[in-house]
Amino acid sequence: MVCVFGLQRDTVTAGVYDVEISAVDVFQFFGSKHGFNQTRIQKENLLPRQTITNIRAGKNITLETLNKICVMCGLQPGDIIEVIPTDEEKIKYRI
Predict the structure, then answer these.
(1) Which residues are registered as beta bridge partners of 3?
(2) Which residue in 30, 55, 78, 80 has the fewest CB atoms around it within 10 Å?
(3) pLDDT digit string, tens, across residues 39-83
(4) What is the 3-state secondary structure (H, E, C) of the chain?
(5) How far apart are CA 57 and CA 92, in angstroms?
C-alpha cells in the first residue's frame, strides 16, 4: 500500500505499511493553509522536535503523528493521503 501526501514521493514506514510522504515542505503547507509554521509548531510543542526532523527527512511517521497533523489542519486522513496499491498488491488482491 502506498499513501501519498502531495506530488513527489519518498518512501517511509508508518506502522507496518510502506508510506510515501511528499518531498514537498509539509511545514510550508501548514503555514500557508493553516497558520502552523515550524516556529509555532516548535514553540507550542505541537509536534516533538524529532518528529519534525523525521518529517523533513522523509523518515518514519506514526499514526499518532498523522492524527496530530489532521487535527491541526482540521482534515481527515483521506484529505491529505491517497492509498495506491502497489503492483504486487494488485496481483495479490486481484484489484
Answers:
(1) 83
(2) 78
(3) 888 899 999 989 888 887 777 688 898 899 888 888 888 877 777
(4) CEEECCCCCEEEEECCEEEEECCCCHHHHHHHHHCCCHHHHHHCCCCCHHHHHHHHHCCCCCHHHHHHHHHHHCCCHHHHCEEECCHHHHHHCCC
(5) 31
Backbone angles phi, psi at 3, to 5 degrees: -110, 130
Beta bridge partners, 17, equal 14
Three cell numbers, residue 43: 514553540
| Contact between residue 2 and residue 85 where contact means Cβ atoms under 8 Å apart | yes
